[in-house]
Every structure is written in structure tokens, then in C-alpha cells.
Amino acid sequence: MIEKIVDFFISILPSSAFFYVFYLFIVVILSILIILLSTRVENKDVSNDAKQEITFEMLYKIAKNKNSTSKDLASALILFSENFNIKGNERGAFDFFKQILNHQNRNKEIFNIYQNKIVKKFSDYSKQLNEIERNALNK
Predict the structure, then answer these.
(1) Higher model confidence: residue 109 or residue 36?
(2) Are 22 and 14 in contact (CB under 8 A)?
(3) How many CB atoms lie within 10 A of CB 20?
(4) Per UniProt, which keywords does this protein have (predicted)?
(5) What digits encode the pLDDT tens for the residues 35-58?
(6) Fewest CB within a 10 Å sphere: which of 8, 14, 20, 76?
(7) Cβ(42)–Cβ(80) below 8 Å
(8) Which 3-state string (H, E, C) describes 36-91?
(9) 3-state SS assignment for residue 121
């Protein structure tokens, strides 16, 4: 039995130099294809993880974090305007805006984004939103 297995492996090995080079070429090509396909599958897994759903709690953590940069704050405001609505969560949303506008790393850009994205989009709440901004500017 073992002799038949050994004979089989010997029979599939190339018998001339040309076939040996051809055999090596095929092995190298197959190895490269396997590596490329495995890295492609790994990259797809990473991209699916990157598309995590944004929640209001995530944005609120950014607003409450004392180490958040002005870019983080600006991104949080923009993401709120694109993905969330004040209606139904007025108290939480207004607290979120207070946290952002009173943050130690706020700047003029934050107030511009607030006016252009938040106040314009949620014009039904403009009185409350302007009051939050006025209080933040007076501090």
C-alpha cells in the first residue's frame, strides 16, 4: 500500500527540467492567488466592522468627554444633524447641545456648525436652540 502511494507521488513529479519549471510556476501562481484571496476576505471583514451604527449615546459621550477635540465636537454635531431628530428626545438633545457649546475645547467653528446645521434644520425649536447658544456665549 505504501509503495503505491510513493509511486503515485513520484509519478506526478516532473521528469524533465521544463516540466519542473512549469510545475514550480503553477505552484507559485496558486500560492499567490491563495494569499490574495485570503487578504481580500480579511479586508471585507474590517470594512463591515467600520460601518458600525452611530447611536445618540456615542455622540453624547463625545460631548461629555473633557479630552474631546474641537474636531470631535464638530463631527458629533454634524452626525447629529444627519442622523437624529430632536422630536421625541428634546431633553437629551438640548443637554447634548449644552455639553457641546459649553465644552472647554469649543471654538467659533462649533458655533458656526451649530447655527448652519442644527438651528436651520430644527427651526421648530429655534427659540430653545438660540437660548442654549446665548447661554454658552455668555459664559
Answers:
(1) 109
(2) yes
(3) 12
(4) Membrane, Transmembrane, Transmembrane helix
(5) 888 877 655 554 454 557 888 899
(6) 8
(7) no
(8) HHHHHHHHHHHHHHHCCCCCHHHHHHHHHCCCCCHHHHHHHHHHHHHHCCCCCCHH
(9) helix
